[in-house]
Amino acid sequence: MSKNILILPGDGIGPEIVAEAVKLLATLRDGFGLDIELDEALVGGGAIDATGGPLPDATLELAKESDAILLGAVGGPKWEGLDISIRPEKGLLGLRAALNLFANLRPAMLYPQLAEASSLKSDIVAGLDIMIVRELTGGIYFGQPRGIRELDSGERQGFNTLVYSESEIERIARVAFDIANKRGKRVCSVDKANVLECTELWREVMTRVGAEYPEVALSHMYVDNAAMQLVKWPKQFDVMVTTNMFGDILSDCAAMLTGSIGMLPSASLDEQGKGMYEPIHGSAPDIAGKGEANPLATMLSVAMMLRYSLDEPAMADRVERAVDKVLNDGLRTPDIVSEGMTEVGCEAMGDAVVAALG
Ligand code: IPM
Ligand code: MG
């Protein structure tokens, strides 16, 4: 039975990079027997302009019915003045919450061809392969109460709530341990248990679940130290598992180790393995419409979709090999270009990957 894939191009460079990923999916469908149907809908700023809100009901319905979702990026300066409750980002957060996409997988892998692009010395980053498992539907991003209130003194006070229940910690722990089991068999759980009770519980539950995985080595690290260790000696990490906000911050940090955030895909999964796939970079309004964006993170997100939601690991390998080949051939978008390489735009890069599928 064919699988339904919902395409959400979004804002900024979203439509350009997603167009290349759609080209890739269409080629896999027409040339390699991938049984899929594609649908498209609005999200983010474009949806605000067309319907008044960042996550229209029609989009949410299609998202619920689909087997997997591919998202470009949301947001841009045009919508920054809006109330926080209807900003483009709320479209993304709304999708995560409504679809229960609690497990965010953010690999930070360094392509050896791009070692020069990292701001760190290449011996520190060569061979880097970290998987950050970020909890995505809980913690301070969604905790209640939240808001800005007026105190008796007349002064205003902003407040948010960091909450995690045991079951929320347990299920993200299992995702991390299962992934580690198939990789380097090490999990580092990142918390702030020396200060925050919520993450004291996080540490306790991680330890309890970890005992069920004797073949995986579990360590714990405070988030400030983890940030430092990521830049000091990142290769000490295999799988890192952490809360929603710590994961947001550490994943950007880890991404930069690899030289370009334009290379990194991500998956956000529910308990059944349904997922939303997106590049981890944002909408990059400064280069939107110029044809310069790097489509590789989005094309690699398609590979993650093939692996995690469509049960097509061989096709995922094929896409990843194609990306490897174009990098070996010296093709580079402006964000990753270095001396002696051939600079190409978004579309030419997409075409090259499609041509390299074999
Ligand atoms: C991310 C982004 C989002 C987040 C924003 C756009 C809401 O930074 O996916 O990392 O904070 O989760
Ligand atoms: Mg982020």
In the CATH hierarchy, the architecture of the largest domain is 3-Layer(aba) Sandwich
Helix content: 25-40%
> What is the β-strand count?
14
Shape: globular
Low-confidence stretches: none
What strand order characterises the main sheet? 2-1-3-12-11-4-5-10-8-9
Structural class: alpha/beta
Annotation field: number of helices: 12
Bound molecules: 3-isopropylmalic acid, magnesium ion
The rounded Rg comes to 20 Å
Span between N and C termini?
25 Å
CATH homologous superfamily label of the largest domain: Isopropylmalate Dehydrogenase
Proportion in β-strands: 15-25%
N to C succession of SSEs:
EHEHHEHEHEEEHEHEHEHEEHHEEH
**What is the domain total for the residues?**
2
Instruction: Determine and state the CATH class of the largest domain.
Output: Alpha Beta
Largest sheet: 10 strands, mixed
Average pLDDT taken over every residue? 96
What name does the CATH topology of the largest domain carry? Isopropylmalate Dehydrogenase
Write a short abstract of this structure:
With about 350 residues, this protein is of the alpha/beta class. It contains twelve helices and 14 strands. Helix content is about 40%, strand content about 20%.
